[in-house]
Specification:
This protein is mainly beta. The chain has a single domain, classed as Metal Binding Protein, Guanine Nucleotide Exchange Factor, Chain A (Beta Complex). The chain contains 2 helices and 11 strands. It has a 6-stranded mixed beta sheet with strand order 8-9-4-3-10-11. The longest helix has 8 residues. The mean pLDDT is 94. The structure holds zinc ion (2 copies). The site of one zinc ion has 9 residues, from loops.
């Protein structure tokens, strides 16, 4: 079990293992959403995710293409959101408290990464991204699960 919280701590949640691989996305939307070189996320089955506090503080924004950003309306930190029409939840990995058994297993949209961003070696790279169900399957492959 890992707990997570936003910057101010009012939005809190927990995620139950085993944990799939993380992915890091370098697309222009994720870079803006995370305010950095990439977004690092964990995709967990909805039944392994629970809100502990502050669900009512979550603000929501969605692009017409479906890309969403949910955030704490007090501190502005990105918070978990349901992954499109799947039974999964997207969790920004930086919100997790403590060190869990986590590892990055995929680099997405390396074709649009910032020129000054260096990619780690030995991690599977995708020029763009695989279809959502394929990505979920890749991150949840048995060899990927930890904890
Ligand atoms: Zn907050
Ligand atoms: Zn992205």
């Amino acid at each position: 079990m890992m707990k997570g919280s936003c910057l101010c701590g009012d939005v809190r949640f927990e995620v139950e293992g085993p944990f799939p691989w993380l992915y890091q996305c370098h697309c222009s939307l994720c870079r803006k959403q995370g305010g950095s070189v990439s977004n690092t996320g964990l995709i967990v089955a909805a039944d392994r995710f629970r809100w502990l506090a502050g669900e009512g503080l979550v603000g929501k924004w969605q692009r017409s293409t479906g890309f969403r950003s949910h955030f704490c309306t007090r501190c502005g930190a990105p918070v978990p959101n349901p992954l499109r029409d799947t039974a999964y939840v997207w969790v920004p990995s930086g919100l997790l408290d403590g060190d869990g058994p986590l590892e990055i297993g995929a680099q997405l949209y390396v074709g649009s990464k910032a020129s000054w961003s260096k990619l780690p070696e030995g991690v599977r790279q995708f020029e763009a991204a695989p279809a959502l169900q394929e990505l979920i399957a890749t991150l949840h492959a048995k060899r990927a699960l930890r904890g």
